[in-house]
Amino acid sequence: LHDAGVRLEPELAIALAAWMIDPSRPGEDRFTIAHRAGDDAPVTYLHARHSERMTVGSTAPLWDVAATIVCADELLLAVLAGRRWAGLAVEGDEAAVATVISWLDDAQWR
To answer: What are phi and psi of 37, to 5 degrees?
Structure first.
């Protein structure tokens, strides 16, 4: 989508990702990743729970956030497609972000 010129607000981009991912995906994963454009920017959270539809929100979870993607809002779709470039930062467990990217990749090939 990013290559086609589509730009979405972060909450909508993450909600699209959440709906693409099959809740019956394998694994016992339960984690949250977040996105923010900078230090004072709003944060959007993607909550993954095994065998449940992923949820999106702006309220911090009661548990630790596994990773935070820090990039410009308009680049979030590209990050979720697995793109990397200078200026992108992942704070925390990069494996959690890689897991979501792999689930999105799988969803596109169903």
So the answer is: -85, -20
CA distances (Å), origin 19, targets 16, 63, 108: 5, 22, 12
What contacts 71, CB < 8 A, 6 or more positions away?
Answer: 35, 37, 79, 87, 88, 89
Backbone angles phi, psi at 15, to 5 degrees: -65, -40
Residuewise pLDDT in 10s, the chain (110 residues)? 546 566 688 999 999 999 998 888 766 678 999 999 988 999 999 998 888 888 999 999 999 999 999 999 988 988 998 988 777 999 999 999 999 999 999 888 75
Quote the CA–CA distance of 14 and 78 in Å, as a whole number.
12
State how far the Cα of 57 lies from the Cα of 34, in Å rounded to an integer.
10
